[in-house]
Specification:
The structure is a homodimer of 341-residue chains. Chain A has 341 residues and is an alpha+beta fold. Chain A has a single domain, classed as Glutamine Phosphoribosylpyrophosphate, subunit 1, domain 1, CATH 3.60.20. The longest helix of chain A is centred in the first third of the chain and has 23 residues. The N and C termini of chain A lie far apart (45 Å). Chains A and B meet through β3, β4, α6, β7 and α10 of A and β3, β4, α6, β7 and α10 of B.
Chain lengths: 341, 341
């Protein structure tokens, strides 16, 4: 017994690892929320999503378990999903109305409240790494369009031809949606609901986004989000993903959050910061705050989607009000990936 | 007495007008914060700023006193300032590093939490009106760059040649700052402070932004912000003005806010939403919340600037931690404009 106690004092992190209520590190990821139904999924597709989520978790966990920081972990996890055409981010980004892939991403460091984001970029292979470069290598938080691409090139980030982001399934998704939209013009303002009923796959595509939040061994939180936006989007539309406080937020005194959903509603609700503030000023636990926003305030306005969050004590929340959300976490040695409700 | 009581019931707004503690309508505006010193201002320039602020207040008040809504009032007040070359917004926008004028604006309706914003636009005469069109005539919240310009043109908003935004004083401001920047490259990372000490006017230019917040006779709040951004900005940088929750926010249950300052810090703090949440979840009065953010959290991170706010009861806050902030308000029949501390 005396020897055990001595060991505990000599290696305090070992001691914490034994205690479920004091997690050493936590990583949570999502790969988008939407009308993701078991009935419209093949077993092969399901397995591919689980494998992709596990690969992203593994990339982040390798960093966290070796004492690396939360910022590196969320960037690594998101990069894996950006490189996988299954997700609407990076390689698998959806197409805009004029047949382009315009990517958005944001990252935030809960320790310093530093943040970086890029919006509307078309040539940066990993937008999340560009967002981090904005945070660490510029005096700015948000860079957009060609300017952001010039910055990324100057910082020697990997630049690709816009055609890198072409995938046949996303291209077909755009053509399908354009056809639907030309039909929808005769519908009334409830067209969104009706279109969703007609085409469940449609909303899945629309809400594709990837994200990661982490708590590291040093007690630091970080959040990262990356997206290809909405299929068929027009006019240089920017959603919630690259907006600090809306789709992405981290603060060591409260929590780290990454959102996925109908971006406009998340912006109007300033979703992520609201949850942090409900914890900080309203003294609410993470799960209550996250549920209040996703299950009450979001549907009240007419929006839907979900989010992942981890608080400074390692508590996890993954609420969504859609049929499914690709998600997973690593906590206390457990690796879990899930798709449906 | 009986007749008076009858009158009160018949015309309740008349009754409220008599009571100082129940203001009928309130309008607050700002024209930017920064190193605005009496010592560097001529009496003529000072008079011109006061006149410009009064003109903006008059445009908004005309709407409010006739029972118009807060949204119309803030848009009207901001348009007057956008059209006046004294302010860094619309006509008087500063120049980017590559000699362009890139404008940002946002508007938010506290009743519905609807919001609209445009970023990086170069051909829209009144960006605040484009932001309102995004809010009311599109399913989106934020449109950027050429896409936002296409949208504005489709909605028949006034489009101008980029040269409309040329003013000699802003062009000279860019040349001066470029010269300073080439000197500054030899300075360490404290260059910002040193540069500010060397060139007080510099920071004034950097923080120019205009904004308005209003409470109307119907109890609705609205906020609007418009800016030309930072002189010499690069890479498609976007500041806090067009970010809902950062530089612009309105919510009938709390307050309406428009910010001006070093945008990156306002984004990282999610400034405007933080104040609303401190009121909603922390039960703080507006002035305490606004002071906490501007006089503690903002300088703690190293930022500076100011904001204007009005709460649902008509209380006003106008804190800033710079030398001055162009500002003014209309409340209880009083019209006030101020520049220095």
């Amino acid at each position: 017994m005396r020897i055990l106690l001595l060991l505990l004092f000599a290696f305090p992190t070992i001691a914490f690892a034994q205690t479920a209520s004091s997690p050493r590190y936590v990583l949570v990821i999502h790969g988008g929320a939407g009308t993701i139904l078991k009935s419209s999924m093949t077993p092969e597709a399901e397995a591919a999503y689980h494998a992709a989520l596990k690969a992203a978790l593994a990339a982040g966990e390798t960093i966290l378990k070796n004492g690396g920081n939360a910022l590196d972990a969320v960037e690594a996890a998101v990069r894996v999903m950006e490189d996988n055409p299954l997700f609407n981010a990076g390689k698998g980004a959806v197409f805009t109305n004029d047949g382009r892939n315009e990517l958005d991403a944001a990252i935030m460091d809960g320790k310093t409240l530093s943040a970086g984001s890029v919006a509307g970029v078309t040539t940066i292979k990993n937008p999340i790494t560009a967002a981090r470069a904005v945070m660490e290598q510029s005096p700015h938080v948000m860079l957009t369009g060609k300017g952001a691409e010039t910055f990324a090139a100057e910082k020697k980030l990997e630049i690709v031809a816009p055609s890198y982001f072409y995938t046949e399934s996303r291209w077909k998704g755009l053509q399908r949606l354009k056809k639907e939209d030309s039909l929808k013009t005769t519908l009334d303002h409830n067209e969104k609901q009706e279109a969703a009923v007609l085409q469940p796959g449609n909303r899945d595509h629309k809400y594709g986004t990837v994200g990661a939040v982490a708590l590291d061994l040093h007690g630091n939180l970080a959040a990262a989000t990356s997206t290809g936006g909405m299929t068929n989007k027009k006019y240089g539309r920017v959603g919630d993903a690259p907006i600090i406080g809306a789709g992405t937020y981290a603060n060591n005194t409260t929590c780290a959050i990454s959102c996925t959903g109908w971006g406009e509603y998340f912006i109007r609700l300033v979703m992520a910061k609201s949850i942090s503030d409900m914890m900080e000023y309203g003294k609410m636990p993470l799960s209550n705050a996250a549920n209040e926003m996703i299950h009450h305030k979001l549907p009240q306005l007419g929006g839907d989607g979900g989010l992942i969050a981890v608080d400074k004590n390692g508590n996890i929340a993954m609420p969504f009000n859609t049929a499914g959300m690709y998600r997973g976490y690593v906590k206390d040695g457990k690796v879990v990936t899930e798709i449906y409700k």
